[in-house]
Structure formats: C-alpha cells, structure tokens
Design brief:
Keywords: Signal. The chain is mainly beta and 656 residues long. The chain contains no helices and 53 strands. The strands form 14 sheets. Strands 22, 23, 24, 25 and 26 form a five-stranded antiparallel β-sheet that branches. A hairpin with a 4-residue loop joins strand 44 and strand 45. The protein is elongated and about 100 Å long. The N terminus is likely disordered.
C-alpha cells in the first residue's frame, strides 16, 4: 500500500550528507531481524545489527485516539557518525495506520520525526511496524539502502468509538435559550468546559448552520479547559420561535476547515430563540398578599416562603438578560417597588456598582458606581437588601468595609457608614421595619442600624465567622456560630441567651443563618445535619442526621428541605422532626447535579440546581414545570420568579 510522501527538507551538509523526509510505500523492505529495545536510565534506544550508527530515541509507540479523529506523535533520531554518501531519511508504514510523516533536520546528526495517524481507522486496537529508511535514492523505493537500514519500531493505535468522547465537552447553560421582543437587542453568554485539556495548539469555533445568530461568533479562551461565546440574535428576526443546533469545533488546524479535529469534536448545543411581538408585554400588578423580597431568603425570618398559589399552566418567560459587557459577575438580587437590585463587578475586578433593573421590561433603570479603589476585592461585594424606599449593601475586605444606603428610585447614594469586618464574606443585611442588622466588628460581631444607615444603634461582640446574616423577630436577633445559637435583644444588643448544639463538629469558618418558624422554633443546616432549637424554652429540640441536609424553608406549619445530597425533597414536622412526606424522584435527564435552592409557595415548591429549575406540586410531590436555567431563586410581590445563575444571567418568569 503506497502512502503519501512529503519531502519537507533538503540540506547539503559536509562532507556530503543530504537529509530528507518522507513516508509511505513498502519499497526497500529488508529481511533483517526487528529492532531490539534496550532499556536504561535514559530514554529507551533502538538499534539494529550492522546499523549502530543511527539510533531512534523511543520505545514501542502506543497512542490513543477517537473514531474519525487523527492524532500526532513523534520520535527523535541521532547519528553516531556521518555516512560518506548523501542519503535521504523517510518513514514507511506497511500497515496503513499513518496518513502522513515528516522528518526534520535539527543539526547534521540530530533529526525529529512527526507522524499523524489515519482518520479512517475503525474502533479497536491496530498494530503495525514503522520502518525508518536511510537510502541513497527515494525512501519510498529504497533500492540503495545504507548499512543497517531499515530500522523498525512497533506501533499500536487504540481507537475509541465516537460515543466514548461525546461527553468530553459540557455547556453552561445546557441549552442556549434567548427570548426577546421584536426590534430589541438580546444576548446570551455560553461557557464550554472540557473534562481534559484538548491539546497544546487548539483552535475552537462555534458554528450556526441556520443563520439565526449574528456573525461572527467569536470564542474566547478562558483557560486550557474553558471557552466562552456571546450569542446575539441576528437583526430583523420576525416574531416566532427559531430552533437550531450550534456546532462547537475543536481542531488542530483552522476551525473553519477542521481537517484535524480533536477527539469528540464537533459537539452540539441546542439553540432556541423566541421573538415576541413588540406589544406582547403586559403590566405587572402587585399581589396584595405579597411583600417585597427584601433580604436573604425573602424576609427577616429567612423562611423562603411566599404566601400565594400559582398555576404552572400560566408560567411564561417575560424577559431575560445578561450583565453588561464590562461586568464579570453579579450578586443575588433583592427586589422592591418594581425594581430588581444587584451588585455587579467587572471581569478584571477593579470596579463595582449597584444596578437597578425594571421588573416590567428587564431594562437597566440606573447604575451607580461604588467608587471603590482599584483593585476592589470583588469577592467581598455582598448581596443587597431593599426596604423603606432604600437599597442597603455592604462591601467587605481587609482594606475597605462599608454599609452603603441608596435611594431606590434614582440610585443616589444617601449614606456610607464605615464598618469593620476583617474582609469576611457576608449575606445580605436583614431589614425589619425601620431597623437594619448586619455583621460588623473586627473580631466578629453584629450591629443594628436605623433605616438611614448612620452610626450603629448598638453593636454586640460575637465569634468571628463569615457567610451569615441574622434572623430577626420582634424581640431577638439570632445567629448560629461555632456550634452555638446566640440570641441578642433587639432593644440594646445584649446577649439574651445562648443554646449549645450538642453534636456540633467544627467544619469551617462559615457561620449559620437561622430559619424561624411561627411557633417559636429556629433551624440551622450545619455539617450536613439539620438542627432544631426551641426558642420559647431556649433549648436544643432535635437533630436530623441526614445526608447533606440543606437550609430549609418553612411554610404554614411544615418544614421543607433537601436531603440525600440534594436528590430528595422532604417535608418535616417542625416541632418533632417527624418525616411527613418525600417528593417524587427529582431525577432530571438534563441535569445530573443536585438541587440546593428552595422557595415554597402555598401550593408549589420551586427548586433549583446549577442547570435547571423545577416546580414541585406540594399535594402530589410530582414535578409540574421545568425551566432550563438554574441558580438563586426569588419571587417578587408582582408574581415574578427570578433565576440568577453564577454567570449573572437573569431569567424573569411570570407566574400570574
């Protein structure tokens, strides 16, 4: 079988040595014994009887690849002496496993050979013997071989079926969905991640065969395993639904041509673009029984409960948006008076701002820079709270710690109060009436502020832990730190009482935020357990030793939580810890991750993972609705469900 022969280099060297490269053919075959592999401390060396003037620095070659792909591999060649006659070097494969080869001269006595496997090989194991020929004539013929030629090297190629590499690339979100009004602009950023590094020289591209998106579709390299692209619908799309499959290519050559794809390439990503009529947006009436989603998990008791019933048949995406191009990520939101508030930071982390978004349209109403010095420690821009016509935000770092108060309508900065938190993360401040509570203190602590956000009304010393905000009722502010529930009197901040957790195991420097029930119980998720405290008796009540138990939600005398590492939604009696029911299996073929976000209404539980959001009917325990985006959940007093993923994408689902 004759293979392609490529002459890449010819050098006339003293006294008269001609080095060339090639591949293919069975001409010049020799009946000499096969090469022997000699092991040692140095790389294995191959030699042949009578030809010890040339050595190949390689052991037997064994490579892996995927069906339909090609793979490059090589070896180094050294000459112990210079032959007296001009000669040509070439590689010949009699088994048909290589598509091309090349031999390059580094010096007069050092060469490197590169080969590329054939893309026609079927799944399985293929074996052949490569011949390195040194000939006075063409190595494909080699009628005049030099002494010792050819040198032989075993080659094994293991080919995996295409199906084995189809999961090498994953996308976030798992499906590219964009909803927009006719004539308006919209975009979606998609991240692609590989389970292994593709290669040293990889070229990636995203192809839209249907022409639904504006071109070009530029891919950004985030790391050797992560890539991103911003999808923008083409201008002039008429109202309707447009469906296609995007093709992501990873290639060793130009991705537009992609003659040399990497294993598994191309991968497909489902695309759906929904264009709504320009007049499709309807006003959002306020639901009188609901209040604003003012703080972490909605309210000062952090119950994650919304007192309303919703019909899944009425659910519809109203709008979705991404961060501005200069933004890198956003905090969890708060919403009040028809606005959604989020803190945002840039990709480079050198600027921070507070942004207000219209619930009606998803458009940005205002943006106020925090004016923090560059660079900002962006991981310490904490989520906002909203109440009393104001937005409250804390920024915490080793150099800069403040409580910010803004006007909701305009974004005007009303006050900025210096704080001291040792740069620890914090959840959103807790607002109850005209008082505000936030972690504050160089060695740990809690402060109460008036609604204006000026000097603290009081401060209470507490252990120094991060990632918490207090739960507050009419008499006490509660926080769980280092295995102990603390209750501070809201009148003066003095410690009213504390209750020990008898089974606490110190897991980290993260604190706990209690969930309060209306029957004087408090609940904490700690170290994979759920711990219940009787606040009226000031005692430990019971502990659920589950498997990664989540922070619960409390609604109408029932405690809801995730168990079994987020794969089971369960309901418990809050006073006794008795299991009341377990929802139907939460398996989702589009999402293999666990669920960890939970908001409960009168008839539904909304649950979310990184990739999807489900609605579970509380009467039947069955899934009645699904949306292909996961993240932080909240519900506004206008009946809007908000899903905010870790990249800052926001989807607003109308529940009315």
């Amino acid at each position: 079988m004759m293979h392609r022969f490529t002459r890449l280099l010819a050098c006339l060297l003293a006294p008269a040595v001609l080095a060339a490269c090639g591949g293919g053919g069975n001409g010049g075959a020799s009946d000499k014994p096969p090469v022997t592999v000699v092991p040692g401390d140095k790389p294995p060396v191959t030699v042949a009887p009578g030809g010890d003037w040339l050595t190949i620095h390689s052991a037997a070659l064994e490579i892996g690849m995927a069906e339909g792909q090609t793979s490059a591999f090589g070896m180094d060649i050294s000459l112990a002496r210079t032959p007296s006659k001009p000669f040509n070097l070439g590689i010949v494969d009699g088994g048909g496993l290589i598509a091309s080869s090349e031999v390059l001269a580094g010096t007069a006595r050092q060469y490197s050979a590169t080969m590329r496997s054939s893309s026609d090989l079927q799944p399985g194991t293929h074996r052949s013997t490569l011949e390195l020929r040194a000939c006075e004539d063409d190595p494909r013929v080699c009628a005049k071989p030099l002494e010792g030629s050819p040198w032989r090297l075993p080659l094994t190629i293991n080919v995996k079926p295409k199906t084995d590499t189809s999961g090498r690339m994953s996308f976030a979100p798992a499906m590219a969905e964009i909803t927009m009004q006719a004539g308006q602009a919209a975009s979606l950023t998609v991240e692609a991640s590989t389970s292994t590094v593709l290669g040293e020289k990889v070229h990636v591209a995203l192809i839209d065969p249907a022409g639904i998106l504006a071109t070009p579709l530029a891919m950004r390299t985030l790391s050797d395993r992560q890539f991103a692209a911003t999808l923008v619908p083409a201008k002039g799309l008429a109202p309707g639904v447009y469906i296609s499959k995007l093709e992501m290519r990873a290639c060793a050559d130009d991705a537009a041509v992609c003659h040399l794809p990497y294993a598994g390439s191309p991968w497909t990503l489902a695309l759906k673009v929904t264009v709504l009529p320009a007049d499709s947006v309807k006003p959002l009436p306020v639901l009188p029984q609901l209040g604003p989603w003012s703080t972490y998990r909605g309210n000062p008791a952090h119950t994650g409960y919304v007192p309303a019933s919703f019909d899944p048949a009425s659910f519809a995406l109203r709008w979705q948006r991404l961060l501005a191009k200069e933004d890198g990520w956003a905090t969890a939101p708060a919403h009040d008076n028809g606005l959604v508030f989020q803190g945002v930071v840039t990709y480079r982390g050198d600027r921070a701002a507070l942004v207000a978004i219209s619930e009606e349209s998803g458009t940005e109403v205002w943006r106020t820079s925090l004016g923090l010095p560059s660079p900002v420690l962006t991981s310490h821009l904490n989520p906002p709270a909203a109440a009393n016509g104001k937005v409250y935000l804390t920024s915490t770092s080793s150099d800069e710690a403040s409580l910010w108060v803004f006007e909701q309508k305009t974004g005007k900065l009303l006050s900025r109060q210096k704080m001291d938190t040792q740069g620890r993360y914090a959840l959103a401040p807790t607002v109850l009436g005209d008082t505000l509570y936030a972690p504050n203190g160089s060695a740990g602590g809690l402060s109460q502020f008036r609604a204006g956000g000026q000097q603290p009304a009081w401060s209470s010393a507490l252990p120094a832990f991060a990632d918490w905000t207090p739960a507050v009722d009419a008499s006490h502010a509660y926080v769980y730190l280092d295995g102990r529930l603390y209750a501070m009197d809201v009148a003066d901040g003095r410690l009213a009482y504390q209750v020990d957790d008898p089974d606490h195991l110190w897991p980290s420097y993260s604190g706990g935020t209690p969930v309060l029930s209306d029957n004087q119980f408090g609940f904490i998720s700690d170290s994979g357990r759920l711990v219940a405290f009787n606040l009226a008796r000031r005692t430990h009540a019971w502990t659920l030793q589950g498997k990664r138990v989540s922070t619960p939600s409390y609604a109408k005398g029932v405690l809801y939580l995730f168990n079994n590492t987020g794969n089971a939604l369960e309901a418990y009696a809050p006073d006794s810890g008795k299991l009341l029911w377990t929802a139907a299996k939460l398996s989702d073929p589009a999402d293999a991750t666990w669920f960890d976000q939970l908001v409960v209404t009168d008839n539904l539980a909304f649950i979310s993972s990184e990739l999807s959001t489900l609605a579970i009917d509380l009467a039947s325990g069955k899934t009645v609705w699904r949306y292909a985006l996961g993240g932080k959940l909240s519900i506004s007093d206008r009946g809007m469900l908000y899903i905010v993923n870790r990249s800052g994408r926001v989807a607003a689902i109308g529940l009315q």
